[in-house]
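Sequence only, no structure available. Ideas?
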Amino acid sequence: MTQRPDGFDLDHHGDLEVGHGLVDLAVNVRAGTPPGWLIEEVGASLTDLASYPRQDAALAAVANRHQRDQSQILLTAGAAEAFVLIARAFRPRHPVVVHPQFTEPEAALRSAGHLVDRVILSAENGFVFDPRSVPADADLVVVGNPTNPTSVLHRADDLRELARPDRILVVDEAFMDAVPGEPESLVGASIPGLVVVRSLTKTWGLAGLRVGYVVAAPGLIEQLAAVQPHWPVSTPALAAAVACCNERAVAEAAQAAIELDRQRAHLLAGLSGTAGVSTYGVARGPFVLVHVAGAAVLRERLRERGFAVRRGDTFPGLGADWLRIAVRPEEVTDGFLKVWQDLAG
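Reply:
I predicted one. Tokens follow.
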């Protein structure tokens, strides 16, 4: 169903949950990143800081990574900038955001003066997306895939059904490279009005560097670029984009996605052994969403025992009894599960 604004804190993000000395299960950045070779590549670029950034090599690398033309790529200072550009470049009459999902797209739209409707997915059916739930007159639709915080991977065919000649379809694929084989990605699709947003932050541990990109038709890219400041992506971030798109990096990311599947299964198995804890849908991202009575108190008690998890009540469609937990290597998860079961059992 479509809902109107109701006081959710759209500006709250997982980094606000993390504190000194806490094990971070609140931010969805892959553990052990950035790798040493990537740090070296970024570090080597520092000798060029006196010059203005040049995007040529990074544009070519991203375009080659996805087999697209460079005119279909826009480099951004992280996915967050992409959402701001979308909100500024397009003037939709009826924008709709599918929730629960990352709140930054809606926050950016509202900041730009748009009146946003919400389509809320149901936990009871596993947060599965039905394209028929989107109003027919919606001329800008935003959906995450896989979706933060539900971790659900929507069918590409269902997203394709949203395409209309007079509609912009924004698909946030910030976590798609964490899914082995990226089976439901639309990054290579030729769909009218499609705008795919990607991030290099999550898999490569580059939250502090701010680097991402948009893939869309050249006309849409031109509209977005027209409202983007000059030199939006720094020289070190451009070096990271080049490095993360080569064959070695793509292969490493693919292997990391396979390991993530195993680590997530380990986390879910441990959580399922706790009374009163429920999960909904099939998790495919680097995090899981759980429902547990008294989650707010549990989250504070976890902090007292050294673990930070993400509160769920800032996501439209969720409430105070939801928590999002990042997937970590088994040894980290085992330490967390011991404390979790002591507190929640």
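The chain has a mean pLDDT of 95.
Hope that gets you unstuck.
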